Amino acid sequence: MTFRTGHVGLNVSDLDASTDFYRKVFGFEVVGSSHEDGRRYAFLGLDGTLVLTLWQQSEGRFSPALPGLHHLSFQVPDIETVRRAEAAVRELGAVLHHDGVVPHGEGSSSGGVFFEDPDGIRLEVYAPDGAGDRPAPTPGAPTCGFF
Fold it and tell me: Which UniProt keywords are given for this protein, alphabetically ordered (predicted)?
């Protein structure tokens, strides 16, 4: 058997705020939605391919202290795309970890930006090359593991 991720579904507390956030940071387009009371959702994609589904069926904030999702990571082709995502995160006033683009580890060229969505879900946008000009924020451990 072979497996490939189809799409990721996230519970959100405010569908409109989350849809706006993911559209601005990632450039996703809404490919389907429902605004029916009690059944609000948005399907987000790129070039007609479904990537992320948002389901308005939760309250409060995401807790990294509980078992479950650690973070959601998106690979982009180059560090310039990572920097555009970082600019959007800063413009939106979202929580940004490590104060910007950092490598995945000591001596690594790959790296990205680590931040949170409106519900506190931890996210990463990274490129396979171009982030090695800064020190790794967590010596001796993967950056994406501890933020």
Answer: Metal-binding
